[in-house]
Design brief:
Radius of gyration: 32 Å
Strand order of the largest sheet: 9-10-15-14-11-16
Helix content: 25-40%
Number of strands: 34
Shape: globular
Length: 759
């Protein structure tokens, strides 16, 4: 019997092959094979929103190959990702490949382990059309919004802009926060701390609290009040009036969902959400761990989930490890179960290690630095989530002086519990008394005052969003889904609506103007609740409680009215984007230079263009970048004998005659790729062929004749240890060693590549 398994990513081929054996052929579709056309709307609104799908350009040869394989097979297992997008890809594959219904077997793998893969193959099902329809409704909805609104923005603001159902809301969230910051009025307040010392010479800090007689808290709003308290307590005795001791327990955080994984990776690892998801995909698809761990293994469960559910087997494995490593006291009597949110899809488990006994340190050498960091984070979070609570000893001391009440508190760890493995980070400021240990104090004890410290403070405006806090906000409000958080953040940055400085996200002038226009003309599209309710409606389709036509027709009725009204009110005058000035003075005409966006990023330009065409490069801080003297080559111009200097062009660095434009002789700079030649071991270097096309060859040419149009990488093939090459013009890594057919999908070389989503 011939069995064909079709998956999405080439990276999972070897993992599944190793698990199923020779009777199964495993091939990859490399994502979607069909989609809506790019050049037209592709939706017949009048005919119940019927979608017109076409084969994706460049996938024709692949579709023909898959169709041949499907025709030869007795059974076709559609093993695309276990989510709505994966379900839709399976449906598109079945349609595009003309697979007879009796051949189709839909299977899913929550983790890339032999046990899970074999179990999935043994338990096939039909394609879930409710899930497919939910994905279709989302795609059609986003297409309508994008294609109908974008031309409106072109007319009002500038060409090339885009609008989207979720991207516009995400931009508004950041713009709203910026407006909150601008409107914020700081309020003055003071603190009057006391540096105290016990009779045994132990020092600590006590904070002013309020009136000693009533025990009521008192806010200090001005300097006069602070000075009054300082003068009163400066010469007074400080006496411990009351000691309160207690115990509190801190429970561990739940295992990761997609959202919490992105948040924590941002806080602890400084990973952007897109980077987190890329690395998580690699860990899920499988890593070659060597014979000690059974070869290629998927290290984590499926990474797109909003569920906190954990299988009983995984719980017991974690508990066994905890008892062995940390003792019975660190393992609760019953397994910890975490409640998933009501609107979660719960199709998959939480993000956890596929096998808790594969310790991060044990496979450190087999992982890249990013893979190791993220796997360690996921592993520690999961193990901690099944451990006993931490026990903390708390002590609070009330101290009186001149009728005023001071307080000092501290916390120490009596029993670490889960803290022995992991502690969750937070975006909020931590309590300064946390983990502070007070010296031994007794009621009635006299304390020496070393200093009184009155300090002025002002309330702070709300903080700008980071990727972590934005993802948290989106999840809490029900805007978007786990699979969309990372692409949305990346999209609004690449489209120029939001800028990122370090971790902080700020709206650009373009983002603010576009948001203002959207609020005025399309209030529903950028309304938080409306967008969240639409997500709930899409869930209703997935649950079989509503239809694509029902959801879309209700949405389109209101949307069409807003669109018609906006078109009627649109003025012929376009909105002028505000000019962003710099502190740089044009040395040619004396004008203050402005910031412009060019092909290679931002630069400073004279506002008197075209009369004055002066420009300057900018550094990361928006200041004029230092223009360095060009590097002089160790050889002379072959035409005139002058110095050759290093220049940069559209094809990279090259050497040019210093007498240009009088002498136009150039010579390409040979750059080492850092990869060894597979024939002789010398460096592989970058060269240019006809029409300045890049190719790669051995540095010892012509002694060694190795060359390749595809770019060699430093990655080794997990099957044969040969060099992996990036296919020219494709997001695909392949092995060219004789007899090896390994290939897998990889990330685009340039950011902002078309991802197929219009959210």
């Amino acid at each position: 019997m011939v069995n064909l398994v079709i998956i999405e990513s080439p990276g999972k081929v070897s993992t599944i092959k190793n698990s199923l054996g020779s009777t199964y052929k495993v091939v990859a579709s490399v994502g979607h094979v069909r989609d809506l056309p790019k050049s037209t709307l592709g939706i017949d609104i009048e005919d119940n929103f019927k979608a017109h799908y076409i084969n994706i350009r460049g996938k024709g040869e692949l579709i023909r190959e898959l169709k041949k394989e499907a025709k030869k097979a007795d059974r076709v297992f559609l093993a695309t990702d276990p989510d709505r997008e994966g379900e839709a890809i399976s449906w598109h594959l079945a349609t595009a490949l003309d697979i007879p219904e009796e051949k189709i077997r839909r299977v899913t793998f929550n983790e890339m382990t032999k046990t899970a893969i074999k179990a999935g193959i043994k338990n096939p099902r039909e394609i879930d059309m409710d899930l497919v329809n939910s994905q279709q409704a989302r795609r059609i909805l986003d297409r309508i919004v994008g294609y109908k609104l974008s031309p409106f923005l072109w007319k009002k603001v500038k060409s090339g802009l885009s609008a989207g159902r979720v991207q516009s809301v995400a931009t508004r969230i950041i713009v709203d926060r910026e407006n909150e910051i601008r409107a914020f009025i700081p309020k003055e307040y003071w603190s009057v701390d006391a540096e105290l010392e016990t009779a045994k010479g132990k020092s600590f800090t006590a904070h002013f609290y309020g009136d000693a007689a009533t025990g009521q808290k008192q806010e200090i709003t001005c300097e006069a009040e602070a000075m009054k308290i300082r003068n009163a307590v400066s010469g007074a005795g400080f006496v411990v009036s009351e000691i309160k001791k207690g115990t509190k327990f801190r429970a561990p955080a739940a295992p990761f969902t997609t959202s919490t994984m992105q948040q924590e990776a941002s806080r602890k690892l400084n990973f952007h959400s897109q980077r987190t998801m890329k690395v998580a995909q690699e860990l899920y698809e499988g890593i070659n761990l060597g014979s000690e761990f059974g070869g290629v293994q998927g290290l984590i469960t499926y990474m797109r989930t909003d569920s906190l559910r954990v299988s009983a087997e995984a719980q017991e494995a974690a508990r066994a490890y905890i008892r062995e490593k940390y003792g019975d006291k660190s393992c609760p009597e019953k397994p910890r179960v975490y409640k998933t949110k009501a609107n979660a899809q719960d199709a998959h488990e939480a993000v956890r290690p596929a096998d808790v006994n594969i310790l991060p340190a044990a496979i450190r050498k087999q992982l890249t630095n990013d893979q190791y960091k993220l796997y360690k984070l996921i592993w520690e979070r999961f193990v901690a989530s099944q451990m006993e609570s931490a026990e903390l000893a708390t002590v609070s001391a009330d101290i009186t002086a001149a009728g005023y009440l001071y307080r000092a508190s501290g916390t120490t760890v009596k029993f670490p519990g889960f803290l022995a493995v992991y502690e969750e980070s937070t975006d909020e400021p931590t309590n300064e008394d946390e983990d502070t240990k007070l010296p031994a104090l007794n009621e009635g004890e006299q304390l020496a005052c070393k200093a009184i410290l009155p300090l002025q403070h002002f309330t702070e405006p709300p903080a700008r969003y980071t990727e972590a806090s934005l993802v948290k906000f989106l999840e809490e409000r029900g805007i978007g889904r786990p699979s969309t958080f990372a692409p949305i953040v990346t999209l609004i940055i690449s489209r120029g609506y939001v800028s990122r400085q370090g971790k902080v996200l700020s709206p650009t002038p373009l983002g603010e103007i576009t948001t203002k226009l959207m609020i005025e003309s399309f209030p529903d599209i950028v309304d938080y609740k409306f967008t969240a309710n639409m997500e709930s409606d899409l869930d209703e389709i997935a649950n079989g409680k509503d239809t694509v036509e029902g959801i879309l027709s209700r949405f389109y009725k209101g949307f069409a009215e807003e669109l018609e009204k906006a078109e009627e009110q649109i003025s012929k005058e376009s909105i002028e984007l505000p000019v962003e000035e710099t502190d740089i003075i044009c040395e040619h005409c004396g004008a203050r230079m402005i910031i412009k966006n060019g092909r290679y990023g931002k630069f400073a330009a004279c506002p008197n263009y075209p009369e004055c065409k002066n420009t300057k490069p900018l550094n990361k801080n928006g200041e004029a970048a230092e223009v360095k003297e060009p590097e002089v080559a160790p050889f002379k111009c072959e035409l005139c004998g002058s110095d050759m200097v290093l220049r940069s062009g559209r094809y990279g660095e090259f050497y040019a005659c210093s007498r240009y434009p009088e002498c136009k002789f150039t010579k390409p700079k040979v750059n080492s790729t850092g990869v060894s030649c597979p024939k002789c071991g010398a460096d592989i270097v970058t060269k240019f062929g006809k029409n300045r096309t890049v190719f790669y060859s051995c540095a010892r040419y012509p002694e060694c004749d190795f060359s390749s149009w595809d770019m060699p990488t430093q990655e080794k093939c997990p099957q044969c240890e040969g060099i992996l090459y990036r296919k020219k013009g494709k997001n695909l890594l392949v092995c060219k060693s004789d007899g090896c057919d390994y290939k897998r999908e990889c990330e685009p070389m340039q950011s902002g590549a078309d991802s197929g989503t219009e959210e």
